[in-house]
Amino acid sequence: MSDQPHLLTETHGAVAVIRINRPKVLNALNLELMTDLAGMMEQFDADDSINVILLAGTERAWAAGADIGDMATASVNDMASRDQFAQWERIKRIKKPIVAAVSGFALGGGCELMMHCDVIVCSETARIGQPEINIGVMPGAGGTQRLTRAVGKALAMDVVLSGRFLSGQEAMSHGLVSRVVPPEHWFDEALKVATAIAAKPPIALRSAKEAVLKAQELPLSQGLEYERKLFYMLFDTEDQKEGMSAFVEKRKPTFKGR
Fold first, then answer.
1. For domain 202-248, is the CATH number 1.10.12.10?
2. Is there a catalytic annotation at residue 42?
3. Which secondary structure element, helix H or strand E, spans residue 159, and what is its range?
4. pTM
């Protein structure tokens, strides 16, 4: 095991930055890393001084898949008892917005981790895909489900069955990522986006994220009802009063997360 930490953290105001740091294996995701990542995200989710989590890889790789050496000789029982996808469920439950800063390879588990994020800023160098078919398996951390919901059946089938990679521009044109930027700006632009989001009222941010995610699961009529309830609940917050008063008074609001 490397003597370097596989996750690096720093804060920029109300933005918590987590960097995946396994460059020798292109940031491959093993169970230890995913367990630590889920725990770190949960800590920031509970920290009132943090409004947004920014997850980044390196310039060469966001994450080039799961650590195959970690699974190559595993049996069905091994995989079931390991319950490695429990860590992904923990990340799914993070309430604060997660911004992804993606450069280079985002493959297999890396693509699936990217799709767990809420706003995805990627470099023109990004290579995104689900190539698990090439090693005798298929996506297992949500790749078939989230990719299909994002880009539609036709492209999802193409990517999953052929194992081909999408460029950043192609991914954006099909609604998989939020923004594509030149290679030299992949992290700075993501931090800029995260900082802008972090300046918004925290309770409204969490509610808006929750409502958008529900849109992927609920029929329209139920989704609209869910949205309406969250909208009404925000009128019980100090931030709503401050935001609307500031708008009427033509001044900048000061949000306190209450």
1. yes
2. no
3. helix 153-162
4. 0.94
